[in-house]
């Protein structure tokens, strides 16, 4: 089984309440970029979105640093920003299609490797997509995902199971049904 | 597709991002962006404060009643009816009358005529925004008769909504008997002989009353 890129510093996920912002940033920023990338399919927007999330954390650091899990707060903000970006982007492209373009324009530029997989992830329902990304990109446990998304662990397991099934079905059949 | 394949794809993506992202540079950019945002915030706050202060001053100036120079309560018998004086007309034109002496002409009399003579510069402030220095000067001349000549009219550019101008008195008299009173600021000299009305030391505010109206 492949080892997560972040598995080595997994213990850092237990965040000390009073750690400096820089420590959090160095640990979490690449992860947030990866999460945003997996959701939006846009590599450069992902960096901007992750940075925006970190900037919000920095501006409110006196509050955020006091949370039990600032990393979970940061992930939630990143995911929300990514969803907003995706929604806006899709709306813009639909409008463009309607008025200008005759064909369809790709909404995202997914990673070249396993492109088909990420394209299928992007078509999943929002919650399933978030759970899949947090599970397989950010390598979070079920309970950690539940913390980030503020839902129960059983809901996480359900979304994860359904997401997996849908992905497997779509990929095995060659596209969304 | 099996879960381990999904995990492999996710790990590959995360590893690639970790390789590509320049985290120290991004942290530097974030801090710069924060500082820039804070500077913009300060600038916006400063602008807001200035606008607020100016707005308050403007409102205060607009709401404040015009300066009304009340005629002295004790009127000599020579001028028994103060209401007959065209004080209202004059005050409607001018809010303030300030005389600064550069070349004191000396005391030529008592009361209102003392110390006001040729070479004394008179600045007039009119708060009404539609007034030009020329109009203000002409109004003063019209209201005071021929006792003030405009050797020159200069715009002083006071921070008021209206205008202000500078006259040079060419005669020894100003028609204060039609005005009611005249405030003189910071005379640089004690007029010889002093005044019967008001103080006589430089730097103080002098109140001159029109002829026959001294308290």
Descriptive notes:
The complex is a heterodimer of chains A (177) and B (215). By secondary structure, chain A is an all-alpha fold. Chain A has helices at 21-40, 43-59, 61-64, 70-99, 115-123, 126-136, 142-149, 153-173. In chain A, α4 packs across α7. In chain B, 36% of the residues lie in helices and 13% in strands. Chain B is built from four helices and six strands. The longest helix of chain B is centred in the first third of the chain and has 41 residues, at 23-63. Mean pLDDT of chain B is 55; it is low at 71-120, 145-152, 157-162 and 168-215. The interface between A and B is medium-sized, with 41 and 28 residues.
What best-fitting shape of chain A do the alpha-carbon axes yield?
Answer: globular
The N- and C-terminal alpha carbons of chain A lie at a distance of: 29 Å
Percent range for β-strand residues of chain A? under 5%
Largest interface: A-B, 41 and 28 residues
- Name the average pLDDT of chain A: 80
Kindly summarize this structure in a few lines.
Helix content of chain A is 68%, strand content 0%. Chain A is mainly α and 177 residues long. Mean pLDDT of chain A is 80; it is low at 5-17.
Properties at a glance:
heterodimer, A: 177 residues, mainly alpha, 68% helix, B: 215 residues, alpha+beta, 4-stranded antiparallel sheet, two-stranded antiparallel ribbon, 4 helices, 13% strand, disordered C terminus
Set out the fold topology:
The complex is a heterodimer of chains A (177) and B (215).
Chain A lengths: L20 H20 L2 H17 L1 H4 L5 H30 L15 H9 L2 H11 L5 H8 L3 H21 L4
Helix pairs in contact in A: 1-2, 1-4, 2-4, 4-7, 5-8, 6-8, 7-8
Chain B lengths: L2 H18 L2 H41 L23 H7 L2 E5 L20 E6 L6 H12 L9 E2 L7 E6 L12 E5 L19 E5 L6
Antiparallel strand pairs in B: 1-2, 2-4, 3-4, 5-6
């Amino acid at each position: 089984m492949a080892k997560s890129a972040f598995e080595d510093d997994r213990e850092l996920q237990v965040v000390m309440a009073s750690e400096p912002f820089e420590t959090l940033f160095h640990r979490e920023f690449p992860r947030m970029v990866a999460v945003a990338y997996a959701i939006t399919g846009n590599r450069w927007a992902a960096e901007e979105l992750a940075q925006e999330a970190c900037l919000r954390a920095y501006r409110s650091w006196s509050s955020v640093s006091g949370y039990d899990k600032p990393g979970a707060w940061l992930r939630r903000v990143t995911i929300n920003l990514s969803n907003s970006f995706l929604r806006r982007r899709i709306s813009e492209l639909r409008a463009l299609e309607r008025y200008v373009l005759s064909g369809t324009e790709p909404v995202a530029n997914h990673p070249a490797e396993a492109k088909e997989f990420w394209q299928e992830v992007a078509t999943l329902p929002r919650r399933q997509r978030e759970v899949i990304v947090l599970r397989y990109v950010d390598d979070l446990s079920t309970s950690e995902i539940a913390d980030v998304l503020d839902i129960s662990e059983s809901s996480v397991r359900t979304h994860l199971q359904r997401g997996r099934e849908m992905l497997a079905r779509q990929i095995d059949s060659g596209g969304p049904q | 597709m099996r879960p381990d394949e999904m995990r492999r794809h996710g790990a590959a993506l995360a590893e690639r991002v970790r390789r590509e992202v320049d985290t120290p540079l991004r942290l530097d950019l974030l801090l710069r962006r924060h500082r820039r945002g804070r500077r913009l915030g300060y600038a916006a706050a400063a602008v807001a404060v200035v606008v607020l202060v100016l707005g308050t001053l403007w409102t205060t100036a607009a709401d404040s009643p015009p300066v009304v120079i009340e005629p002295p309560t004790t009127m000599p018998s020579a001028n028994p009816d103060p209401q007959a004086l065209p004080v209202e007309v004059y005050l409607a034109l001018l809010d303030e009358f300030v005389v600064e002496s550069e070349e004191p002409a000396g005391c030529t009399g008592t009361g209102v005529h003392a110390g006001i003579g040729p070479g004394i510069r008179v600045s007039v402030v009119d708060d009404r925004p539609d007034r030009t220095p020329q109009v203000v000067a002409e109004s003063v001349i019209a209201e005071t008769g021929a006792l003030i000549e405009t050797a020159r009219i200069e715009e002083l550019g006071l921070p008021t909504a209206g205008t202000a101008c500078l006259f040079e008195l060419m005669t020894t008299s100003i028609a204060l008997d039609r005005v009611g009173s005249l405030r003189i600021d910071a005379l640089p000299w004690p007029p010889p002989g002093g005044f019967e009305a008001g103080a006589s030391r430089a730097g103080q505010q002098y109140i001159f009353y029109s002829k026959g109206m001294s308290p």
